[in-house]
Every structure is written in C-alpha cells, then in structure tokens.
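To whoever is on call:

I kicked off a structure prediction for a single chain this morning and the downstream step that reads the tokens threw a length-mismatch warning. I double-checked the sequence; it's 257 residues and nothing unusual in it as far as I can see. Pasting both halves so you can look.
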Amino acid sequence: MLDKASLQGMIEEKWCGRAKGYSEMVHEELNGPIKDVWLKEIDSLVDFGPIKRPKVLDIGTGPGFFAIILSQKGYGVSAIDCAPEMLKVAKDNCETYGVSPEFFLMDSHRLDFADETFDLLLSRNVTWTLYDPVAAYREWLRVLRPGGNLLIFDANWFNYLFDEAALERKRLAEKEALERFNLKPFEEPNRESSEIMYSSLPMGKYTRPEWDLALLTKLGYADIKIDPTLSDRVLEEPQKVQYSDTPMFAIRAKKPL
C-alpha cells in the first residue's frame, strides 16, 4: 500500500502525462452540444438567488472545461489542479476561448483559500483520485460560504480492482461497445503501475455515492441530493454502453446557513 505522499506524486505525474489527450477531448466538448448539457445540469442543481457574480472553485480543473464554460457565463472562477501540465493546457484553452479565470497549482486536500470564500465548488471525475476524501470534503466545506453548494460528478471507476462481479460487468460492457460501436477498450498507459496506484486509493473500495452521502452528512453538509442517472444526460449512446458498468452520478450538497 502506497503512502499519501507517494500517491499524490504518482497522481501528479500521471495527469501531467495525460494533459494533451484530455485537452483534445475538452475541445470536442466545448465545440459540441455537450457544453450546453453540462450548463443545464449545473443550473438545475444550483440556484444562486440574488448573487450577481457567484464565486466558483473548479477542483481538479484538468484542461479547464468547467472553468471555461462558467467564466463564459460571467461567474468569478478560480480553478486548481495538482498537475502543472494540466494547468498549462487549461490556460492555453482559456486564451483560445477568450476567458481568464484564475488558476492555481494546489492540492485539493489543502486549499490556500480563506474560510467562506466560494458560492460553488464543483468537480468532474476527480473525487475518485482523493487519497484522503474525509480531509478533502472537510476542507471544501471550510471554503464554502453559508448556503454555498458542492457539486460532485463522478463514478465508481475502479471498483473492478476489488470486486470480481464489477470486473465481469466491465468486460461485458467493453464487449458490447466493441460489437455495437467498434469502440475498443481504453489501453491504460503503464497499466501495472497505474493499477497499483488505483488500488491504493480509498474510493475504489467504497460503494458510491452512498458512501459520500454518509460522509457528507457526518461532516455537516445539508440538503444533500443524489442523482445516479447522470450518464443518461451527459454521455452519447456509445459511451453509455462503454461505461455502463460505471454509470456517472451527481451529488449536490450545501453548507448550512
């Protein structure tokens, strides 16, 4: 089992190596209909009331998808990532799309922001990488303003490393995607070392989002909403099949007033 420092180092190195490929995916999203689908999703979950220019923190921004689309709406956006190469491509992408959120190289478990800074925190496909989700969720509550919202979009991406039934579901999903859409399974670079890292991360051992619900409640979040059907709205049909074993979910939680 890897220690926290080793895990964080491996995570940073991995996402630096994936920055270019993820940036290409984000450009496809920004230039297609999925951008408006995500904006509609966020609007359905968060009501800022009288706040004219909400302050938003995009956690694990990657190539900057949320940072871009929320800046285009006029929000005051800050974005963090632990991978310097991800921040580099995110800044380049923001220049391309004419927006200028603030970017910070930062560990999402230890935020360099004052208490009660943000009206909204959100992340996509990030929480599964947390080496200490209890510490991270507690820290995120700290920087939320009273009444502020936390949005988590994620899935049980690597449960198959711990569960034979999950592994079989993964194989069946990949087989169907190949037969119906000629989608080949994703080839994980440096698969052996990657799976050592994944198996050391705690989230893969939990059944989510039920685990998150219990933790968020314990930490003091309120008005928690769970939606296990996110994939139905934000994925195209081939991807719904390819990832049918790991459907995406949405979590909305508030900081009490």
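Update from on-call: the warning came from a stale cache, not from the record. Cleared it. Sanity check on the structure: The mean pLDDT is 93.
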